[in-house]
Amino acid sequence: MKHLFTLALAMVAAVACGTAQAQISDGVVKIGVMNDMSGTYADLSGQGSVVAAQMAVEDFGAAAKGLKVEIVGADHQNKPDIGSNVVRQWIDRDQVDMIVDVPTSSVALAVNQIVKEKNKVFLVSGAAASDLTGKACSPNTIHWTYDTWALANGTGNAIVKTGGKTWFFLTADYAFGHALERDTAAVVEKNGGKVLGKVRHPFPATDFSSFLLQAQASKAQIIGLANAGADTTNAIKQAAEFGIVRGGQSLAALLIFLTDIKALGLPTAQGLVFTEAWYWDQNDANRAFAKKFAERNRGVYPSMIHAGVYSAVTHYLKAVSELKTDSDGKAVVEKMKSMPTDDSLFGKGTIRVDGRKIHPMYLFEVKKPAESKGPWDLYKLRATIPAEEAFRPIKEGGCPLVKS
Amino acid sequence: MRSKRPGEGLTIESTDDPHPLARNRVRATSPFQGEVTSPIGKTRMFEIFGIPSQALFGQLLIGLINGSFYALLSLGLAVIFGMLNIINFTHGAQYMMGAFVAYFLLQWAGINYWAALVIAPILVGFTGIIVERLFLQWLYKLDHLYGLLLTFGLALVIEGVFRNYFGSSGLPYRIPDALQGGQNLGFMFLPNYRAWVVVFSLAVCLATWFVIERTRLGAYLRAATENPTLVRAFGINVPRMITLTYGFGVALAALAGVMAAPIYNVSPQMGSHLIIVVFAVVVIGGMGSIMGAIVTGFGLGLIEGLTKVFFPEASNTVIFIIMAIVLIIRPAGLFGRRV
Question: For residue A144, which of A49, A312, B101, B117 is within the disulfide window of CB 3.0 to 4.6 Å?
């Protein structure tokens, strides 16, 4: 229904010395932000990710450092074929050097393959499937913000440890949902819990009542929602309607974003426990970023995906300006892995050889309406998962880049 | 409701919480130690095709609920196609506008759901009348394709404008107080609101059918489609009647939108998700057949509901499979007249 459109966002960051640019392919570092700009995931990634990338370029001071950076954006409509076409066009015709964001794991896995083939750089902020640093890992890809393993580890652990032993999954029927379900089931079973059943719903779906009734009939204590965006918010809304919570079953939203909580409203969402990598109200640097970001993004505050795009682009520009070249994707990613990461939003961190960016994850709880002081004051911190425990141990992913 | 705080017992929060959804909130936990009791309680269980009967009845009822949305939307499409020969692709966007207008009325003017049920369709229907006067009236004599392209383009524009201003993640709209809670039917927990949706949409569908097929006004309308010149000769203002018919079809879409607002997210893409299925329903029922649209709407809701139990992965495609089969056997649709 929606038409492919490419936003040409002229981000000319001035022309400095011509000689320094000689090694940069076609004289410009071209960054392609691809995500869902018109569908379910448009608010949590979408245009906001383009804004975040622009802010990263500005804050990095690319112009002063003699780098000419240009940003383009495109809508992949959550379809792997469209995403692949855009990326091929970008790389072959438009000389794009780096692709960033790409929510919807099925699209990200397709892009992962192409970027490797063409030896460019792929920085994943939006997609979740942990396979991107597992069996599908690539020397050209870094998985930046979060992944299904980290979500399962955070939320799954917290719930099983407080007694939620039997689970039923409501899973979005594509790569992301499958990965999230798999990783969470592993955590549940490791902690002595049991998975009673699952139902896979088409993506995207609007009516969940059928699936919820099946979950209800399973008598599982926890209904794990292995989906995202509007799918999750609709499922939560309808679960309340069908008296599922009153029957003693609890919902676990395995992946939920700031914009989703906003869409649900605090009265419905309060008490929900979930895992995220970043929240705007954690410290002064985050708050300052969020304020500036919201001014440029229809007043909508940044999600962790937007923050991840900012952080990833910043680190990429650092690597390129040190290397003074952007033409060899593998070399750039190598450089990025060798330098510790450090930016105002995610602080200090590292990138593992399998392409996993390492930082702490946080367990949040949605505030009660009475506790909230502003329209975007939605989370309170429950626990911090330290960086070394937040992500899947490198040996367990099965990534061929890791030499045992 | 989902918070787990160790050491706390299982307590059911008091019901004075003003928010409807918070009302039956179970607070939590070491909460998981007890057995999960389904709100349905214990009932005799027997199995049909390996599925517990209560699950099956529940699914059938839910199918009927979804079917009522299909019926209401395809009815509007059938009316518009039957009387104007326009394939109204803007229908999904107009359904979405209905939901948004209900949201605006509540948020900005404090007008509740019941009033919105009347006002929103009138407002959106009025925009439909403007569209008809500005664009559609010039297309009646041309090929169907032109109307289709125009309405399709309009749908994209409307959706884009709403997305630009309100984002894609949706806006909250609560179920009206009078329809909070639900009934325990023995085999399932039926939310009152859903029951209302089925009953009300069935009533609207039948009333529409009655007006068009059994009254003098309906007779004029049908006559005007067959031979507008002759009907004009009898002193009936055909263009005005056509305009109002389009407005009415659009109002039906908006009405469905208002009814959908409390259960689905009010979001710009809510219409485009539904419209393709609804078109399949109209094609299966037979383009322009009023009764066909109603019956297939409910029927396909049921079939889709069953698919969600037996093979959930296919629940998005099953309607199109049926459409293909029906088109092979009866190209004019189940209730369509052979042209």
Answer: A312
Q: Are A142 and A165 in contact (CB under 8 A)?
A: no
Token pair in block for residue B155: 């749908």
ipTM above 0.85, yes or no: no
Find where tokens 């009475």 sit: A370
Q: Which domains does chain A have, with CATH numbers?
A: 6-146+282-359 (3.40.50.2300), 149-276+360-390 (3.40.50.2300)
DSSP helix/strand/coil, A347: strand
Question: All domains of chain B, ordered by start, with CATH?
Answer: 60-329 (1.10.3470)
Q: Which residues of A are less than 8 Å from B172 in CB distance?
A: 263-265, 268
Set of chain A residues whose Cβ sits within 8 Å of the Cβ of B191: 241-243
**CA–CA distance, A322 with B94 (Å, rounded to integer):** 54
| Cβ-based contacts of A272 with chain B (< 8 Å) | 1-3
pLDDT in tens, A262-311: 988 898 888 899 999 999 999 999 999 999 999 999 899 999 999 999 99
> Distance of CA A245 to CAs A133, A249, A362, B21, B309, Å?
36, 5, 25, 10, 21
Q: Report how far residue A6's alpha carbon sits from residue A35's, in angstroms, rounded to the nearest whole number.
A: 11
Residue of A nearest to B67 (CA): A207
Q: Do B21 and A38 touch (CB under 8 A)?
A: no
Query: Is the CB of residue B241 less than 8 Å away from at least one CB of chain A?
Result: no
Nearest CA in chain A to B7: A162
CA B124 to chain centre: 15
Distance from the Cα of A2 to chain B's closest Cα (Å) equals: 7
pLDDT tens string B227-259: 888 999 999 999 999 999 999 999 999 999 999
User: Which of A20-29, A120-129, B126-135, B270-279 shows the lowest mean pLDDT across its residues?
Assistant: A20-29
Please indicate if any CB of chain A lies within 8 Å of the CB of B316.
Answer: yes
B232 touches chain A (CB under 8 A): no
From chain B residues 170-229, the ones with a CB under 8 A of any chain A CB are 170-172, 175, 182, 188-189, 191, 193-194
**Nearest-angstrom CA–CA distance, A20 and B183:** 73
Q: Which two tokens stand for residue A217?
A: 């009939």
Given a contact cutoff of 8 angstroms between Cβ atoms, the answer to whether B156 and A1 are in contact is: yes
Residue A244: closest CA among B2, B18, B308: B2
- The closest alpha carbon to B87, from B155, B150, B147, belongs to B147
